[in-house]
Write a structure and sequence with these properties.
The complex is a heterodimer. Chain A is mostly helical. Chain A is built from 13 helices and no strands. Chain A folds into two domains: 1-84 and 298-336, no CATH class; 96-289, MetI-like (MetI-like fold, Orthogonal Bundle). In chain B, helix 15 runs antiparallel to helix 16 (453-463). Chain B is globular. Chain B starts with a helix and ends with a strand. Chain B contains 17 helices and 23 strands. The chains are: A mainly alpha, B alpha+beta. The interface between A and B is large, with 71 and 62 residues.
Chain lengths: 336, 523
Amino acid sequence: MGLYRYTIRRLVLAIPTVIGVSIIVFLLIHIIPGNPVDVMLGAKATEAARIALTERLGLDQPLYLQYWNWFTHALQGDFGSSVTSYESVTTAVLGRFPATIELTLLSMTIAVVFGIIFGVTAARYRNTIVDNLTIGVSLLGVSIPVFWLGIMLIYIFAAVMHVLPVSGRITMGLSVTNITGLYLLDSLITGNWAAFKDCFMHLLLPAFSLATIPLALITRVTRSSMLDVLNEDYIRTARAKGLPYRSVVFKHALKNALIPVITVIGLQLGTMLGGAILVETVFAWPGIGRLLITAISNRDYPTVQGIVFMISFLFIVINLVVDLIYAYVDPRIRFE
Amino acid sequence: MKRSKLLSLILVIAMTATVFAGCGGGDTGGEEQSADTGNNLIIARSTDALTLDPGYAYSEGEIDLMYHMFDGLVKFKNADLEVEPALAETWDTSEDGTEWVFHLRQGVKFHDGTDFNADAVVFSFSRLIDENHPFYGMGDYSYFDYLLGDAIKSVETVDDYTVKFTLNDKFAPFLTYMGYYSEFIVSPTAVEKYGQEFFKNPVGTGPFKFSEWKKDEYVSMTANKDYWGDVPQIDTLIWKVVPDDSTRLMELETGTVQAVKSIPPNQLEKVKSNDALIFEQVAGANIFYLAFNVTKEPFNNPLLRKAVSYAIDVPSLVASSYEGLATAAINPMPPTVFGWNNSIEGYTYNPEKAKQLLAEAGYPNGITVDLNTFTGARPYISRPLDAAEIIKANCAECGITVNIVTLEWGDHKTTLDNLEHDMGFIGWYDIPYPANFLSTMLLDGSNTGWAPQTVVDLTQKALSTYDRDEQSAYYKEVQQLVFEDTPLLPIAHSDYTIAYSKDIEGLELTVTGDINAKNVKFK
């Protein structure tokens, strides 16, 4: 089976997953006990307000029809409008995505760069103090709760040392011309250095907090995968031909050891979107996680459904892309 | 080989250091922030507003803002919520008390330049009352509707600066409610211009003009230099959203914000011991109580309700759950509200009496009941689960076995609204006016199912007199009846708190629990 056919097959297989997710997300609103309208509006609401909201949410229609309407609209990117802000859910979510993307990308960069360096170093100096130290630190990395780490980092770097800001995305009074929504990129494009520096400072602590778990996992996977590869015959052959050890490790071994690492990176990218909820709350970061939390506490179900569906969809896409990269890197997979 | 090991160790350390060095790179980052604060006041709060339209605002995140951007015809002048002139200079009432005529202040303009006059007042109220008004129903829930929706029959202009309100009947809290934010006046031009988007583009006559709202980040306002009253001394007022308690306090400690609302009990010591901060608490207009479901077994039996009430050591519970940020409750209304009955002593902890009443109630061998509680904090209790554990332990000593049923707030509220509970935690926070607690809460929202005709009649009488002494007499009788029949056990009135920097003065927490930053200045 060629890569093309493999891609088609994977795409087709993703369809039932999307449908399954959509059913679960849709049913969220019906699982909660009581009438969703009562829950959303509270006891003090007038009858007129209740009827209006019931109609707006289409709750007066049969369940299958409600699902069909919701799903067909969702496929066109229309998740209805927020119960609280009347804004289109899609607009609200897209408005918040750049903040989360910026945070996630920087975190992932930190995690990948340092994770691979640490992992390779640990594998190369197996069973030495370097290895033990790396493994110890990465164990700590997966175990420390992200929100606790975030608060500690703020305490040390902002409250005690005064070198970094406490929270938020940019200092009050500074602004960035909105082009992509990614403040770092936008401030670079417009040459606004003061804002670039300020945004970078604001990004460091949340990005580092969010990076710890993937960093630790990437380190461990890189290490064990490198150890496997380093025992392979072709590595011995390369060494025997007299190639320098450094070149064998980075050119021959690392390339082959990266396959499981790619999988971990892909999965972690999805998990990071979840981790962002905690980090965004601690650092008052105005991203998708905050939007979700606010929507949940306001019982704004259309928004909750929209966010959960879009994140799930993104997760499926990331997995698909990872599978394809995997297949591209390792041709054996396509033929199984 | 040995050398390379050492080298790689250095490498690893260097790598780790780079991550942190990146952080340390901008030594000036923190300083710049506090430097450009200037004459701008930043207040940090846990939640953002959902709407900036006073007619449809109702949550804590919104109410603070309303008092700064809008004005009412009258405003509160003291803790009893008696009023003084605001947009109206004088007012008079007809002999039967159903007509109120307000004489408006002249020369006032809305932030968009529109003249404030009788038409603006009629427009502001009609859009909330009159279903045929073109701008009716711009929100799902109107606090105005809850307070005055049934009371006001019509609002008409008499002349350019005179407005007449006609009520269906005498309505005791009318003038007080007119000072509340939900009765504030909006610019008709702005509502016509923005329509459904007015909630994002508020225009009033208040001391601050709206400037920007970045959802979940901040709402900013600038001083209204043409304000008809005292012009603010600060230039900008920013309401920043910082959801995490610890982060919020650190913002205050580092000086990036000047004030923080609602200090959780666990931060109290830290805040009080910080010399750079001022901490204030005011008695809150709220109540946390245990609601007995009187509509079904077993709590349809008043003796059992009393047995449980004697079994619980309320003062100890309040001391340990609120850490000094509350007063133990006796009546279903805070003692700061006029009409509070000070001759009732309430239930004092008495396990022996509890056991005796339990036996009299027909349960000599004890009884098992459910106690419904919820997760998360409410304005009247920050740790409901702790309180439930204390009640369980107290009751166990008297032969009452308590099963704690914990639900998420929404589900909990639904369960209690449907009267599916035995006894459950619930509370109320409202305007500190007796009708809100002893009529609205007690008879419509107490989650007890208790509403005897005598009490309904008494509250009706209280609502139809403007004489506060008369009202007090009726409400004291209501409180006596509540105590005698015990449909609920009052537990606590939680204080409202604020902490702010010593660099500012004039910041105030009002009796309604809202921030007043109108008179703030930097020292």
